[in-house]
C-alpha cells in the first residue's frame, strides 16, 4: 500500500515524496483513513512505529478548511515531555510545508511572553504539556472551547509521570462534540478507564509491539563491577569506531556526573536531563544533530522523542529498569537501514534487569566480557563513597540485589568475541574528540588512574 491509497491531499503527498516516504507503516495505514472519517481512535502502539504521522498527517488535511480565532486553538495535542512535544511540532512543520496552518508549542522552559503572542493570534494546532497548558489557561491566555480535535499521546507515560488528573481536568474544559485520538504503548486499568471516559465509540487499532530489536543493531553485554564502569566506557569511546554516540544513565544526577568526568578527560560531550531549562536542552540537541557534539549523555525521559537519523553507538551505562526502555534506547541506532552498535554495562546487581530484557526480546544479549566482582557491587557507583540524602535515593528505584537463577543468568555465559569493527571517517567529530582525549591522557604519568574519582 502507498500513501496515495489513504486519501491524503496532494500537498501532503508532495511533502512525503520530498522526504522519500513511500509506504505507510502498519499503524499509519490503519489509522489515517479512520481519522479522516472523523472517528475517535484508540491506538495501542509504541514509539518508533510511525505513530506520530498517523495523527499529524490526517489532522493537517482536516484543519486545512477553516481558520483559527484569537486564543482559541482548533486542535490540541498533549504530550508528556517537552522533547516529545517539540518532536511533534517539528513533524507538523515537515509534513505541512505546503499548507498554511499555524501552530504553537506550549512547554515549560520557554518564556510566557513568546507563547502569549502566538496564542493571541490564534493557532490551528496547539501542542502542549499538561502542566504548562493549565498554567496558560489559569492566566486566561487560552480558551479551549473551540477545540475540534484532541490528541492524547503516550498516555501510559502520562500515567507514570502523574499527569492523569491534569488530563481529566483539561478534557472537561473541551467541547463534548470533538474528535479524540488516544495513543498508548500499554493499556493498564487506569489508562483503560481514561479512554472509556473520553472516547466515543473509538476504532481500536493495535500494532504488534516491537519486542525484538532491529536486526541491523549489534548488541553487546559487558558484565563488570561498578568501580570499573567509567574506565571501561572511556576505553571503548577511544577504541570503537564512533561517529556519534548516546550514553544512557538511569538517573539525572549520574548524567551530570558522567558528563563532568568525560569532559575532564578531553571528550567533546553534551548532556540531556529533565532539570535542564528548555533553551539549554534544545541547544544541546541541535549541536548533537549537527555533529558539533559527537557524544551525548542522557536520561530516558529527556531522550524520549530524540530523533537523530544516524547514531553509530548507544551505551547503556546503567541497565534500564523497564525492559521496554531498552528497546527504545537501542532503537536510537541502526535506523533507516544503517547498522549500529548497542553496548550494555551490567553489574551483578543488575542481572535480573538483564534477564527481564532478554525475556522481552526472546534472545540472549551476547556476552563480550565478564570482569564482575560480585562482592563489591552492591552499591551504585555514584554512592560508593557516601550515602545520598533520602530525596536523592528515591529519585529512581534500584534493582533488587539478589542472585540470578543459574539457568538463565548472564553470569553462566561464555563471552563472545566482539564483531569486527568499521573504521570511522578520518575527519569525523568523534575522531577529533577521541584524539583530543588521547592527547590529554598521554600527558599523564604512566599507570595513573584518571577515571575513578572526581
Description:
- This protein has 454 residues and is an alpha/beta fold.
- It folds into two domains: 3-206, Rossmann fold, CATH 3.40.50.300; 217-442, P-loop containing nucleotide triphosphate hydrolases (Rossmann fold, 3-Layer(aba) Sandwich).
- Helix content is 37%, strand content 15%.
- It has helices at 10-18, 26-36, 51-62, 82-95, 112-121, 130-138, 155-160, 164-172, 189-198, 229-239, 252-264, 278-290, 300-303, 323-330, 351-361, 390-393, 429-442; strands at 41-44, 75-78, 103-106, 125-128, 149-152, 179-184, 203-206, 217-223, 245-249, 269-272, 295-299, 313-316, 340-346, 367-370.
- A seven-stranded parallel sheet has the order 3-4-2-5-6-1-7, sandwiched between helices. A seven-stranded parallel sheet has the order 10-11-9-12-13-8-14, sandwiched between helices.
- Helix 2 packs parallel to helix 3 (51-62) and helix 3 crosses helix 4.
- The radius of gyration is 23 Å and the shape is globular.
- It starts with 9 loop residues before the first helix and ends in a 12-residue tail after the last helix.
- Residues 375-412, 416-427 and 437-454 have low confidence and may be disordered.
- Residues 1-29 form the DEAD-box RNA helicase Q domain.
- InterPro entries: DEAD/DEAH_box_helicase_dom, DEAD/DEAH_RhlB, DEAD_box_RNA_helicase, Helicase_ATP-bd, Helicase_C-like, P-loop_NTPase, RNA-helicase_DEAD-box_CS, RNA_helicase_DEAD_Q_motif.
- Pfam families: DEAD, Helicase_C.
- Residues 411-431 have a biased composition (Low complexity).
- Residues 32-205 form the Helicase ATP-binding domain.
